[in-house]
Amino acid sequence: MSFIRLQNITTPYCLKNITLDIKAGELVVFLGYTGAGKSTLLNVIAGLAGYQGEVYFNQQNMNNIPTEKRDIGYLLQDIYLFPHLNTFNNISFALRATGYPADKITTKVESMLDLLHIGHLKCRYPKDLSGGEKRRVGLARALIREPKILLLDEPLASLDPATAKSIRKEIKTLHSRLNLTTLYVTHDFTEARELADKIGVIANGRLEQIGSVQDIFYQPVIEIKEFIAACGH
């Protein structure tokens, strides 16, 4: 049974008739060059972009469900942490804003800090965090409400290779541990190879191919050399 189903998703100037089924617990990487439509697809799923077509979560039509009620965690490429809040309060903000019991917030945030190995950062402010540390705090904030779907839009962009590799391992571990349905956008082939259960190749607003890592890299619909060149590699 599909947990996310997209039917004939079309957006102005971008996506073109995308139909896709994603199983519960899958980690699907959307691979494509800049401007291909990857981020727009995540925004459609999150309810942040207008579209034609149908979006279903677990057989429920989501077309008229606002973003805040879609049970989604979303980590953008640009990590927008509140500069006036320390790590603990950045992570707990969504809980406090939604009326989560005050006496349980500390325990829940401490658990998330431990899960991501960032307990030593809880009193630091964003200006005192490295790029990798900000990504981990942003990931903790996206996960704190225990969403059923996690959207990751180029989360490792601009990080040095060693830090990016470390966080990739953490994302893979978290995905397995939490059994989250996870959609990950990148133009980086290494990220796609290391993370994906499935890869969806998007070009010119179309879903050209979806399949296993082996399918995409060894039986590509799009000529892989041309695609690599288009991605700037």
UniProtKB/TrEMBL annotation:
<keyword id="KW-0410">Iron transport</keyword>
<dbReference type="GO" id="GO:0016887">
    <property type="term" value="F:ATP hydrolysis activity"/>
</dbReference>
<keyword id="KW-0547">Nucleotide-binding</keyword>
<dbReference type="InterPro" id="IPR003593">
    <property type="entry name" value="AAA+_ATPase"/>
</dbReference>
<dbReference type="InterPro" id="IPR027417">
    <property type="entry name" value="P-loop_NTPase"/>
</dbReference>
<keyword id="KW-0472">Membrane</keyword>
<keyword id="KW-0067">ATP-binding</keyword>
<dbReference type="Pfam" id="PF00005">
    <property type="entry name" value="ABC_tran"/>
</dbReference>
<keyword id="KW-0406">Ion transport</keyword>
<keyword id="KW-1003">Cell membrane</keyword>
<dbReference type="InterPro" id="IPR050093">
    <property type="entry name" value="ABC_SmlMolc_Importer"/>
</dbReference>
<dbReference type="GO" id="GO:0005524">
    <property type="term" value="F:ATP binding"/>
</dbReference>
<dbReference type="InterPro" id="IPR015853">
    <property type="entry name" value="ABC_transpr_FbpC"/>
</dbReference>
<feature type="domain" description="ABC transporter">
    <location>
        <begin position="4"/>
        <end position="229"/>
    </location>
</feature>
<dbReference type="InterPro" id="IPR003439">
    <property type="entry name" value="ABC_transporter-like_ATP-bd"/>
</dbReference>
<dbReference type="InterPro" id="IPR017871">
    <property type="entry name" value="ABC_transporter-like_CS"/>
</dbReference>
<keyword id="KW-0762">Sugar transport</keyword>
<protein>
    <submittedName>
        <fullName>ATPase component of ABC-type sugar transporter</fullName>
    </submittedName>
</protein>
<dbReference type="GO" id="GO:0015408">
    <property type="term" value="F:ABC-type ferric iron transporter activity"/>
</dbReference>
<dbReference type="GO" id="GO:0016020">
    <property type="term" value="C:membrane"/>
</dbReference>
<keyword id="KW-0813">Transport</keyword>
<keyword id="KW-0408">Iron</keyword>
